[in-house]
What we know:
Structural class: alpha+beta
Strand content: 35-45%
Number of helices: 11
Largest sheet: 8 strands, mixed
Radius of gyration: 27 Å
Amino acid sequence: MLASIQIGAASPVAEYLKLSTDVNNGYAITTVEEKLSNPAETAVEDKFSFLIPEEAFISGFTLIIDGKEYRADVLPKKEASERFESAASEGRTAGLLETKDENLFAYALSFEPGQSIIVKLTYEQALKKTLGEYELVQFLESSRSVANFSVTINVNSANQLIRLETPAFPEAEVEYLSSNRGQVHYKADSLPISELRVVFETANPPLNGNMLFYENEGQGYMMHIFSPSEEDLGTSAMSKEIIFVLDKSGSMQGYKLEQVKDAFGNIIEDLPPGDYFNIIFFDSSIQSYSGTLMEANDEQKTGALDFVNNLEANGGTNINEALLTALGMFNLESGRVPIIVFLTDGEPTEGVVSPYAIRQNIKDANTAHVSIFSIAFGIEDENNYSFLRAMSLENNGTAERFAPEDNASEEIGGFYKTISTPLVTDMDFSYSSGISELVNTGEKNLFAGSDTIVLGKYSSETSKIQADVSASTRTGARIFSKEFTVSPKGENAFIPRLWAYTTIESLLDRIEVEGENEPLVSAVTDLALEFEFVTPYTSLFVEVPEFSGPEADDGEETVPEMPAGEPATKDERAAPLSSQIQSSSDSRYESNMEIEEPVEGEVAEKVAEESTPGFGALFTFSGLTGIAYLLHRRQR
Length: 636
């Protein structure tokens, strides 16, 4: 975490800290607001940081200084960087926020004696429905004492709100406001020592789904929520063919391999009758429990457990051969859902070692349309993780990271549960004419307790929308059809932002798979600018005017002009999710991560020598003067 940088003996006092979240049908908008004051007679400077969810996009950063509100603008990355460099070289107060590799937002403030500054951060994310429930986590730890602390979480759903609770946090108050709305509230005169987990469950939509509508300036947006349950379908989950492809190379020796054995031992024991399975361990070579898929009966599961428990770690990492071996075992005519769960802790070092060649080989060999779910176990290198993620995305799956910690076995088991019960497969969504720019939050498979959301645009003249979902279930092919009457509601104002968020995520996934190209980058940039999201291709830029002093030479107050337009009005979108506030009064930079020094650092340092801090606000980052703040995000 970032430690503080301090000028003077004192440090700012946090007068209050407010965390508020509005969740509308799984889309969460968070505002973090903190008021900081300097009670000392000398200027002080502190650096703070917020941990935001990995999937979140920052959408707003605002400073309120001496009663004036200044909101950062989202700009193309190059333009924001150029404007920041120009401002820094001329000694003006400016700030730049860009994406990095982790989900950490940090900023530094310099306070004049007696000065107060209010900081507001807004970020947005789509929550995932997993095993029938949604979860928010608020990390509430801080090294700074807060005398006035509050958290408010509003939950709204088109479907009935069945359950809203805060496990292991009895101090929080839960209130049900209606059949579809609830609120969690917590207030204290200090920060608690534990995180606040909020879990809620909503009723499933009807069999053919719900459709919500919103219109703005002649443009309509629709949201189709599809989440049938086993009861709705009148059938149980589909049987699957599943192969566990597990790394046992030398780097897995010891604690890592023991955790893997523990996690997958439990998974194998829980395989239901009707499933077929196999286990492949790999290092430089391949070791399979069986040459073919085996029925998940007691005899085979016992034999598989012995196989798992008797293996030792050694050798290199032959990912290509291990996955090709697994893909060759699936029966294209079985009617069962084909899945690979692939776990590794490193990069390929044996056989084919080019990530691009491996991806191509796997894609070409995957004629059975197997979903490959990758587990990055202790992988910190972004390139290695990007390789696994891209490979999973182009093979109907996803990738997740897990650290080799005490609860890794439990977390891996939890991840497996989310993909262990396929209810509906081969889904294809189609809509009546006039619906455009569709984007889907899910894959072709729908697992028990999850949902698929399709978003799109429609003309404001549209009165009805026909939705048809063709899919396969345990009882065979089915079509789910319904005609929805268009009925826009103001409470659905979040839908355009959810559409933009989901579209950007989908485009970024394509960039992960296809690589950067001008059409995809332009599409991300244009949407991020329109809806004001910070992405890898857009940045936040803010410029705050210098103050010559509270009074001009003639004794009258001087009101500076805002360089990039008028001071911002209150952001109407700012509404409430989870974050972590960290700060320290230590004068050292106690970070365990390396921050790259921007090119303009030398220029800024020169400016720092020539300019005098103490006006309005001064922000610093890695040697830069003026206001600067950083987002570390997209640990994907």
